[in-house]
Design goal:
mainly alpha, two-stranded antiparallel ribbon, 14 helices, 2 strands, globular
């Protein structure tokens, strides 16, 4: 494919549709990580939770026809999705228990979950299929795809709303964008969301006014596991219909970066996730050129590093501005006195 053709494909509605699709497994864990971060209990196990959910979704979806024969075919992918979500929430609950009940460092607990998910999924996959690479021998179902009616006849809007091939997006893509609105409403329009933010800002002050800090953090971590699990399911039952070893490929950590780049705000986090999704889509497009593959695969991590540098520069500038305002306030009070 020529450079001109690739360039034309990048500046097209179809490319925007690709960004929407590639951003889905980033938006969902980013929204989950945002909830736990704002509660003061950062969850760096998003990667491992996504991996476990992706694995159990495929395995249960593929084997449930043997365990529960006679059910309608559309039920089996939902059973797989339920298993994946439960796996993600259980792992998040384990982190919460070790951190909140046993006093373990949450970073170390989350790292242990990441390691467990990375090795454990391969171990169980090999025990079930005899293959350490993928579950390609299992007939795994896919989550349903939704096509918005009456828009495919519109040249640009059709591709934007129903994907580059006009075949619709996976249902988890719609859930991902809906989750942004739900998380925003939860954080800023509900009492529990207010409590969650208060706990993250100052847990001692929140406890002094009767907010149950431990319970709020339990809820935040379990919700983060739920949303991260949906992101993992999108990879194995939306992108593909199989599980591959370490198929998350760092998306959980990129989702964490999106939280900070988005200034810990649902809308900002969505924009950051779309930027990272665009980097992934660009990687796929440039892969058709005669460019060393190593350079192409460097695009997403480079974008992540640059984004974090920009965030840190902005954060340091904010800190200096706050310090300057505080100093001016103190000087004004001193002159008044």
């Amino acid at each position: 494919m020529s450079f001109e053709t690739v360039l034309a494909s990048i500046f097209s509605v179809a490319f925007i549709a690709t960004i929407i699709r590639t951003s889905t497994p980033l938006i969902l864990p980013a929204m989950g990580g945002l909830l736990s971060e704002l509660a003061g209990a950062i969850n760096i196990a998003l990667e491992g939770i996504m991996l476990a959910a992706a694995f159990f979704g495929v395995v249960v979806g593929a084997l449930s026809p043997q365990w529960l024969p006679g059910l309608p075919l559309w039920v089996y992918p939902w059973l797989g999705a339920l298993a994946g979500v439960l796996a993600g929430m259980i792992l998040a609950l384990i982190i919460a228990f070790f951190h909140l009940e046993l006093g373990a460092d949450i970073i170390l607990a989350a790292l242990a979950i990441n390691i467990l998910a990375s090795g454990g999924t391969v171990f169980v996959m090999y025990a079930l299929t005899g293959d350490k690479g993928s579950t390609s021998t299992l007939a795994s179902p896919a989550m349903p795809t939704i096509v918005i009616p009456f828009v495919n006849s519109l040249p640009l809007l059709g591709q934007l709303l129903n994907g580059e091939n006009l075949t619709g997006y996976n249902i988890l893509t719609y859930i991902a964008f809906l989750s942004v609105a739900v998380v925003w409403f939860f954080l800023y329009r509900t009492p529990l969301g207010t409590h969650l933010r208060a706990v993250g800002e100052n847990s001692a002050a929140a406890a002094s006014v009767g907010i149950p800090v431990k319970r709020v953090r339990y809820i935040a971590l379990v919700l983060s596991g739920f949303l991260a699990a949906l992101g993992g399911l999108n990879l194995s039952m939306g992108y593909l219909t199989l599980f591959q070893a370490n198929m998350t490929a760092g998306r959980g950590f990129i989702a964490l970066a999106a939280i900070y780049l988005g200034n810990k705000n649902p809308i900002g986090t969505l924009v950051a996730a779309l930027i990272f999704g665009a980097a992934g889509a660009l990687e796929a497009q440039l892969g058709t050129l005669k460019v060393p593959s190593q350079l192409i695969t460097m695009i997403p991590p480079i974008v992540t590093i640059v984004a974090l540098v920009v965030y840190n520069i902005r954060r340091q500038a904010q800190i200096r501005a706050n310090a300057r305002k505080f100093q001016e306030k103190m000087e004004a009070e001193h002159r008044t006195a």
